[in-house]
Amino acid sequence: MIVVMKIGATEAELEHVCKKAEELNFTTHIIYGKERNVVGLIGIEGNKEGVSLIEELPGVDKVVPISKPYKLASREVKRESSIVDVAGVKFGGEDFVVIAGPCSVEREDQIVSAAVRVKEAGARMLRGGAFKPRTSPYSFKGLGEDGLRLLAKAREATGLPVVTEVVDPKDIEVVDKYADMFQVGARNIQNFALLTLLGQARKPVLLKRGPATTIDEFLMAAEYILSENNRNLVLCERGIRTFETATRNTLDISCVPVVKAKSHLPIIVDPSHAAGQARYVPALSKAAVAAGADGLIIEVHPDPEKALCDGAQSLNPSQFAVLMNEMKAIAFAVGRRI
Amino acid sequence: MIVVMKIGATEAELEHVCKKAEELNFTTHIIYGKERNVVGLIGIEGNKEGVSLIEELPGVDKVVPISKPYKLASREVKRESSIVDVAGVKFGGEDFVVIAGPCSVEREDQIVSAAVRVKEAGARMLRGGAFKPRTSPYSFKGLGEDGLRLLAKAREATGLPVVTEVVDPKDIEVVDKYADMFQVGARNIQNFALLTLLGQARKPVLLKRGPATTIDEFLMAAEYILSENNRNLVLCERGIRTFETATRNTLDISCVPVVKAKSHLPIIVDPSHAAGQARYVPALSKAAVAAGADGLIIEVHPDPEKALCDGAQSLNPSQFAVLMNEMKAIAFAVGRRI
Amino acid sequence: MIVVMKIGATEAELEHVCKKAEELNFTTHIIYGKERNVVGLIGIEGNKEGVSLIEELPGVDKVVPISKPYKLASREVKRESSIVDVAGVKFGGEDFVVIAGPCSVEREDQIVSAAVRVKEAGARMLRGGAFKPRTSPYSFKGLGEDGLRLLAKAREATGLPVVTEVVDPKDIEVVDKYADMFQVGARNIQNFALLTLLGQARKPVLLKRGPATTIDEFLMAAEYILSENNRNLVLCERGIRTFETATRNTLDISCVPVVKAKSHLPIIVDPSHAAGQARYVPALSKAAVAAGADGLIIEVHPDPEKALCDGAQSLNPSQFAVLMNEMKAIAFAVGRRI
Amino acid sequence: MIVVMKIGATEAELEHVCKKAEELNFTTHIIYGKERNVVGLIGIEGNKEGVSLIEELPGVDKVVPISKPYKLASREVKRESSIVDVAGVKFGGEDFVVIAGPCSVEREDQIVSAAVRVKEAGARMLRGGAFKPRTSPYSFKGLGEDGLRLLAKAREATGLPVVTEVVDPKDIEVVDKYADMFQVGARNIQNFALLTLLGQARKPVLLKRGPATTIDEFLMAAEYILSENNRNLVLCERGIRTFETATRNTLDISCVPVVKAKSHLPIIVDPSHAAGQARYVPALSKAAVAAGADGLIIEVHPDPEKALCDGAQSLNPSQFAVLMNEMKAIAFAVGRRI
Fold it and tell me: Strand A2-5 and strand A37-42: pairing?
């Protein structure tokens, strides 16, 4: 890391910094500048606290960390892009993978009919919530294990692998029994108890960025899972919280090329939760294909007007089919296949 | 709720909206305006999905909810301010309560000495982390139950009640054994599994606002706990995430008077996590007293340069004693007592 | 507008609200709800101050405005999309218009060579700054009228119409002499003196969204120009300020479909200022085409490593040519022509 | 500045960086680390573009600037706090200066009566807008020079010096004729044409932070004025734009201690524009005194219910008098005098 001294910091202050740094096991290296001096600290920067303590020493203007806090998620460490296989569906390769389905699993006919319709239109995986995190304690919280059973029926009926959210560490076991991929929702991006346990699981994980999570923190959350040895990880951009209220969140489309530059992990986009309104979902979906995402997760409900959850952001099956068609041509234009 | 029609929406569109609303059990009431019409929907607005579906109907410009999504937390429902008693320490009354202590419990002498020093300076409760949520999987995560035991020793030595964070639902039982108050950290503000269980506990809860949580969502998270029948709840503002990077978070000092206007619950301020740097903690602490907060939770470490966690934002005991003195005069000026 | 009363507001408070509203020339209309009452105020809402005064009356919970503050910019008022003609180049129709060129005009060979190269690759207009707003008083501020003359030479050499920024009302006249389209930069989105004068000009205006401007405020700024009778207006999304620092700004790609839904005005995207780094420009450009934008404004410099301004975000001419090629296929896929 | 190379960057890439840096007149200094190498560039960093070009070279991970972009505003360059004298009223010394008055000047009796009342309560200067920047083209834009004349009458009647906003460079001369201090509004924080001209004026300037301006950019805007040789500059924090909508802006109270640490310039707080609602103004005002601000600028209207502008955020004279009384005790507690 680099310690930047203040203009006019004394020689004694500079020496004190070097002494403290050496106590923290860094080798020091002073660069005398025209206006101010800096000290390079050579060593392992795991100790973030060390960094910030040095920042408080007299004569120090600021401390600049050099190492990235994540390793396993970094493209510096693994140059080739990772391909993640979910029951035969491959994320990160030539295929652009569309996951579709309703926000919540409600009834057998609803989830099976959704699965059949999205498969017909070209979706490769089915989504559907059985455990729902809800901002209000008074909202519908999902069917639980019954919902998982219905998801499994929809998979039997269509062959589509299933991804579903797990919100509580104690539910990992039951979700593992039915689903092909665990989903970590945006609210749990820093639920480290959950991340650690999913890192110990075998099944692939879909990790959604939190609404206030920087891309670096997103990759740190990924590191939690990777460092426990589960390397089957797909990231998902779903909008960040900003001052703009015309959409529920602001889809950070730049997250796609930035993650591609910094990490080898696949990244998909959730346009439904970003927009919060069905009318904007097609434009955002097409933007995601063009920007180089590896896939999409879209809400499709057989009858959005009757959905128990987030109906307003769901496409109906015919809107979805139209969108899939439009996206095929864009995918082709950027060298991908839907 | 109020449905705002577009300029030029047809009579048929207006009727369709009314029909749909009546299917959702609302009574409708049309107001014909000069430029456009609006429909008032009378009924219970629990069904947020209903709201958003109507938003997608043809001719609708937008839907404006009228009811607040929280009830038990609202000052509309309970006018007098709540006073929360934590082992004899009262939040929300005349006393301005200062909680102080280190970020993490590290060793017996560290936590006991911290407790003794902060008590001497006038703190009324002790803080200290035994279970630490950490952004990096490679950082120190706390001593766990050993840390709780040391906290209990520090309580014995000083008589100060103890608050400590619980990050995993499975740890509630063990934390309950040792602590006087549960703390929910900012990252867990929407960890609904945790909130629900704490709502079923008997001990008081200190609920920290998340960095991307609006005040309305903050009160919704409070509602989760209140609705499970634990009414011993204290809120804590600790900074929100904005574009400004000079401080770790942006302390939203307005949260104090806004929460006081909207809710009957006590609210305290955490200046240490907001600032991220010890040098700004005194100014923010004094601002919190003056703004009408009910207390503070401040990081104080007997030797910040050796702290295993967040040392840079900790005051040392003499800085803390100076600050307590300055705050006494301000508290007096606003009719409070430290 | 709608006045929402508090739960438990008295009949007298309700009457007082109605009385005040009638003094402000509104007709009032009470809806009695299950939990609380609301009052619809019928009339012209120009008087924003009236709105907010009513908010402060006893018993009032909040006031909800119904009318949009902009009229001329609204698609409610003008349903068909506007087509803006800039010296024969049409924004908002079937053509997807790419404007390209360097950040600053530096020398004749630089701007002419840039113009020739971007035209070859398919750009339809030339950009280049002669008056530069700079965050630091010590940075290069542009060549002024000399720069405008060089832009005119590049137009002669290529036939490409020219757009350039005007930062000071006193420069409008000289810019008008040379340019085909005025650009209002993001920092001037609320420089109302400038907007008013450009509304009185005849030439088309390219209006960039400010980094902290909501889409509604963006359309209000457009209204300033439209209300002075200049209807030749093209909007430009160029990124908003958020907590994310991996890119210079966060490109709000949703702004494209939202503006298309709310307004009849054409909207283009500036991926260069949003990203701040050339490496992310292609992904964002392609996303903009796919999302339905009417064009792009991209920085291209014949030799980015020697640029006097923002070189790091400029493509070189061959990178630009490759990108144009890729975009043609995407444009075709969404029914547009480059 | 510091160039951080990627892990695995080649020796040739390192050499290329050094060569490019030397072409830009930097001396280079390599530090070989355990994991990656960094290059210190010694020289003057005025050339921000140089910095960013190096960022795009092969093998470079990122470039970290070391120098601050502002000099004259920095406490590193001038250690003692500046005291700014406005017609005998001193900002930055022992006195805590309260400026008060209505948003807009409307009529002679209104402004004179406001001036008399705020003076009685202890205000030291009068505020009042004659030129108003308005988000809507249809709102009241102020009385112009007539308003300035009325301000001068209010000064005669009370002896209070007057501060008023200038929104257009062409109005500087007329404002200079009547006012004691120029105000730059938040929307003009990057109106560099205006800042430069005010830097050439003799009278003191009150510079408001923009809603999307970082503290570093705020000090850069100050640098514009200082570098033109007007050193009579007072800064004003007035809230930043965040996702929170309970207040109009989020008052960044930390801005006060941060500016005090980074700069020698006085800083005051505008609680009225931050809150947007009168009910929150007292809490924010008191917080500002306690946080160490040098003063306040508060909206007070003799009859807020009849104000033509921002009435909802104005205190009436008796509310203001109560607040002044409360603040006196807090000011005393922090060693200041109102």
Answer: antiparallel
Task: State how far the Cα of B113 lies from the Cα of B116, in Å rounded to an integer.
Answer: 5
Tens place of pLDDT for every residue, chain A, 338 residues?
Answer: 889 898 889 999 999 999 988 888 888 888 888 788 889 888 765 555 566 678 878 888 888 878 777 889 999 889 999 999 999 999 999 999 999 999 999 999 999 999 999 999 999 999 999 988 777 777 777 889 999 999 999 999 999 999 999 998 889 999 999 999 999 999 999 888 899 999 999 899 999 999 999 999 999 999 999 999 999 999 999 999 999 999 999 999 999 999 999 999 999 999 999 999 999 999 999 999 999 999 999 999 988 777 766 677 899 999 999 999 999 999 999 999 99
DSSP A231-262: --EEEEE--B--S--SSSSB-BTTHHHHHHHH
Q: Inter-chain contact B76–C33, Cβ cutoff 8 Å?
A: no
CB within 8 Å: B46 and A279 = no
Q: What digits encode the pLDDT tens for the residues A162-195?
A: 999 999 888 999 999 999 999 999 999 988 889 9
D183 in the Ramachandran plot: left (φ > 0), alpha (ψ -120 to 50) or beta? beta
D210 contacts in chain C (CB < 8 Å): 212
Q: Kindly state whether B77 is in contact with chain A, defined as any CB-CB distance less than 8 angstroms.
A: no
Dist. CA D328–CA D338, nearest whole Å: 6
Phi, psi (deg, nearest 5) at residue D209? -65, 140
Name the residue ranges covered by the structural domains of chain A: 2-64, 84-333
Residue A331: CB partners within 8 Å, gap ≥ 6? Answer: A96, A289, A337, A338
Structural contact between residues D182 and D205, judged by C-beta atoms closer than 8 angstroms: yes
Quote the CA–CA distance of C187 and D99 in Å, as a whole number: 28
CATH number belonging to the domain at C2-64, selected among 3.30.70.1140, 3.90.1530.30, 3.30.930.10, 2.70.98.40: 3.30.70.1140
User: Measured between CB atoms, which of A134, A169, A307 is closest to B170?
Assistant: A169
Specify whether the CB–CB gap between B9 and B37 falls below 8 A: yes
**Residues D29, D34: Cα–Cα separation, whole Å:** 17
Using an 8 Å Cβ cutoff, are B79 and B264 in contact? yes
Q: Testing the interface with D: which of B220, B253, B258 to mutate, by most D Cβ within 10 A? A: B253
For residue D249, report the phi and psi dihedrals to the nearest 5 degrees.
-135, 170
Structure tokens at B254: 């307005």
List all residues of chain B from 234 to 293 with a beta carbon under 8 Å from chain A.
Answer: 241, 277-279
Q: Hey, CA dihedral for C11, C15, C21, C27, is it positive or negative?
A: positive
Distance CA B275, CA B247 (A): 5
Do A279 and A313 form a contact (C-beta atoms < 8 A)?
A: no
Given a contact as 3+ CB pairs under 8 Å, which chains touch B? A, C, D
Closest-CA residue to B282 (of B316, B258, B311): B316
φ and ψ at residue C108, rounded to 5 degrees? -60, -50
Statement: D84-333 belongs to CATH 3.20.20.70: yes
CB atoms within 10 A of CB A122: 16
